[in-house]
Amino acid sequence: MPADSDASKTAVPEAKSPPTAFGKGFITDAWYFAALSRDVKAAGLKRYELLGEPVLIGRTRAGQVYAMRDICPHRAAPLSAGRLVQHDGEGETVECPYHGWRFRPDGVCAAIPSLVQDQAFEADRIRVRSYPVVESQGLVFVWMAADPRNPSAPDHDPPVFPGVVGGDAKLVEWMDFDSHVDHAVVGLMDPAHGPYVHQQWWWRSAQSRHEKAKAFEPRDHGFAMVRHAPSSNSYAYRILGGKPATEITFRLPGYRWEHIQVGERQVLALTCLTPLTETTTRITQIFWSDHWVFDLIRPFLKRGARAFLKQDGDMVNLQNEGLRYDPALLWIDDADKQAKWYQQLKREWLKSRAEDRAFANPVKAATLRWTS
């Protein structure tokens, strides 16, 4: 057989996993948390990565937040490495550091400095992809469209979180996990891993595991563990005094928050999961509170939040040792029911967008029972 005979064979394209498959693809036509408002400085340019796309987020001197693809269409230099400038008749523009091309906050090219006067080139026909941005509750959200080259306008607003009180966030911690966002989400909502992964004495004793029953109901683009008294083996709630009542909510594409009320006082613990790439997810934990004890315990809470993130991150790295063999995953009720709901929500979201119809929440009210 000739040595080059294989070259004549028809190449078979590699099969691609559907975007609805667990651990594959992203939820699009959705608002993703990108940054804290306080981190987007006036006249500043900062590079982020969202869903595998480089995104420049900036703020004009007048206070307007904007986002555009962080690649100059001329020679691909990152626009975030440039500066915000102002020229007569142009307003404020982002100037590319390579050749000085200037782009307005909406992505339209305002000027190409290398052109001479008699070269009739319409610079404003050149555009850098821009992204809708909303700034709310001290957070910056970016709309990631299913078709970035022909994006539709956002048809819903970013989430509004309860309990954002006391001005600026009291505490912010973040960490990048080597994980697809799907694995990060279900790891976050997994109720059974606590006694094995998080064994701080001040949180919960490994010897205090007992059966729990919690009521859940569908919510906007997600579901919630309805308001209830915290479990008796959760030590951390006791320092709040009174009779805390907590509600835990999950919403697509990756938000989970716990809203605690103690009389008239509130605590909000928000976790935002932002996929940077297919294999990296940023976990950002943000806390607000008007409870007087919060300022006293903040140093301890900061260390605790960091410890929780590191423990979860270490477990993700350990899990990756098994995931690289692409095994089938076994999900059981009721401890894994929230993970199943997430998968159903993701599938329905992508299907409803593809079929151009309203999202129909697949979650049904239920009481789940597990031991932790």
List keywords for this structure.
single chain; 2Fe-2S; disordered N terminus; Cholesterol_7-desaturase; 4 helices; four-stranded antiparallel beta sheet; 32% strand; alpha+beta; 372 residues; eight-stranded antiparallel beta sheet
Summarize the structure in words.
There is one protein chain. The protein is built from 4 helices and 19 strands. The chain has helices spanning 181-189, 194-197, 292-323, 337-354; strands at residues 30-36, 45-50, 53-59, 65-69, 83-87, 91-95, 102-103, 109-111, 130-131, 133-136, 139-144, 171-177, 211-219, 222-228, 245-251, 255-262, 265-277, 280-289, 366-371. The strands form 4 sheets. An 8-stranded antiparallel beta sheet has the order 12-18-17-16-15-14-13-19, with helices on one face. The protein has a 4-stranded antiparallel beta sheet with strand order 2-3-4-9, with no helix packed on it. A hairpin with a 2-residue loop joins strand 2 (45-50) and strand 3. Helix 1 packs across helix 4. Residues 1-17 have low confidence and may be disordered.
Low-pLDDT ranges: 1-17
Distance between the termini: 64 Å
Which sequence of strands runs across the widest sheet? 12-18-17-16-15-14-13-19
Briefly note the structural class of the backbone.
alpha+beta
If you average the pLDDT, what whole number results?
Answer: 88
Domain Rieske: 31-142
Keywords: 2Fe-2S, Iron, Iron-sulfur, Metal-binding, Oxidoreductase
GO molecular function, one term: oxidoreductase activity
Pfam families: Rieske, VanA_C
